[in-house]
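Please decode residue identities from the backbone states below.
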């Protein structure tokens, strides 16, 4: 492929020769490193392709071999320009196109975000908009290090960010803290608490201590003990004693521990027995559109003779190269009309839906690291609604950090007698 491009750029010929001694002619070509390809023998003639610069070398020895040379076809960029040298408008258009491509290449036309799960792409893009970072911004105005630092500061669950520019894309690779979605993990009451801030760990809800592993701090509870909401579980205040078991001073540390409690979640779910069902019609319509920058050009009708319908848009960006994305896109809009019919759940259908809702709730808890022990729920259906109530018994990791209340040292009382000084006789 590369050789074809080079040949086209430099120009090449399709030549026919007729010679009394073709063997000597081809030997001279080989000796002078003249490249011939796609050779064909037609009667007493030979046809082949050769480079334009080698053609002028043939004239030096075609008389020696009594060879007649005839050019059949000309290919390549030099001949193209020669044929169109009088078409000034064409070359002007080509020049303007090259200038347009260059102008487009100095802007960012796509911001790609990957690795994000907790924070949506739209939320990240909205933040970038507040920092004047948007599609169409010039590359020279972007500071990738500042963008990464700003994202880490704005979104606390993001632990690592890589910002880089490839082609006309700003690529943001993000890694989030995998443990931030668990139910517990010792959240802070105060966002100013860092890993060095002295703090206690308190119970965010009532429960029974199942396991406790203390890394730093002084535990105030033991396994199988009951705990109340707001109770201090791990104290960040440590008493330092002397040999006589007297408190000499107090040290304040950043409490750290893994605490598991057995607790309950109250469950409540209610939905009406009457509902509206969508019945989709067979009349599916598809229209096409183009998008240039932020302007849409619809090629179909924007009015639909339906009261209810859903629309699905599929959009494809135009790529000049793999990383060169133009601000042009195209796609289709699919319209699915439907009618609404009033329906009512039977008792069996309502109970099935209630069980599905309960299963989704339990699955969500499990995804957050909660261990389900048992559940005690009751489904009650009436003519108008279906209500599910009960409790779910779980074991979960818990604990919430709060700043430790440091005690001020007592003021020392000075002894008046020791403060008075008596003169000393010299």
């Amino acid at each position: 492929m590369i050789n074809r491009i080079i040949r086209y750029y430099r120009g090449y010929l399709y030549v026919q020769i007729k010679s009394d001694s073709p063997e000597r002619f081809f030997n001279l070509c080989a000796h002078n490193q003249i490249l011939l390809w796609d050779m064909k023998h037609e009667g007493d003639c030979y046809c082949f392709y050769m480079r334009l610069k080698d053609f002028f070398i043939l004239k030096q020895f075609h008389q020696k071999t009594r060879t007649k040379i005839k050019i059949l076809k000309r290919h390549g960029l030099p001949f193209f320009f020669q044929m169109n040298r009088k078409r000034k408008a064409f070359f002007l258009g080509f020049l303007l196109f090259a200038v347009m491509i260059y102008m487009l290449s100095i802007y960012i036309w796509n911001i790609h975000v990957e690795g994000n799960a907790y924070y949506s792409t739209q939320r990240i893009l909205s933040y970038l908009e507040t920092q004047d970072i948007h599609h169409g911004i010039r590359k020279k105005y972007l500071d990738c290090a500042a963008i990464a630092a700003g994202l880490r500061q704005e979104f606390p669950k993001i632990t690592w960010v890589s910002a880089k520019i490839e082609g006309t894309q700003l690529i943001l690779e993000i890694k989030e803290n995998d443990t931030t979605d668990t139910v517990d993990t010792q959240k802070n009451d105060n966002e100013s608490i860092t890993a060095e801030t002295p703090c206690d760990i308190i119970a965010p809800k009532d429960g029974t201590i199942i396991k406790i592993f203390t890394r730093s701090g002084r535990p105030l509870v033991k396994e199988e003990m009951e705990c109340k909401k707001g109770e201090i579980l791990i104290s960040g205040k440590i008493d330092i004693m002397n040999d006589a078991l007297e408190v000499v001073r107090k040290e304040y540390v950043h409490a750290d521990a893994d605490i598991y409690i057995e607790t309950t979640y109250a469950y409540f779910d209610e939905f009406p027995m009457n509902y509206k069902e969508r019945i989709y019609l067979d009349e599916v319509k598809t229209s096409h559109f183009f998008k240039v920058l932020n302007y849409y050009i619809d090629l179909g009708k924007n009015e639909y003779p339906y009261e209810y319908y859903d629309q699905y848009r599929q959009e494809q960006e135009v790529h000049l190269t793999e990383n060169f994305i133009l601000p042009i896109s195209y796609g289709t809009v699919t319209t699915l009309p439907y009618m609404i019919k009033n329906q009512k759940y039977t008792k069996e259908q309502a109970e099935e839906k209630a069980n599905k809702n309960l299963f989704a709730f339990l699955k969500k808890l499990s995804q957050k690291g909660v261990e389900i022990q048992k559940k005690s729920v009751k489904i009650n259906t009436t003519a108008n609604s279906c209500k599910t109530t009960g409790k779910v018994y779980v074991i979960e990791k818990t604990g919430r950090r709060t700043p430790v209340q440091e005690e001020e040292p007592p003021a020392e009382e000075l002894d008046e007698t020791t403060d008075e000084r008596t003169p000393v006789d010299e």
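Observation: The CA atoms of residues 160 and 175 lie 5 Å apart.
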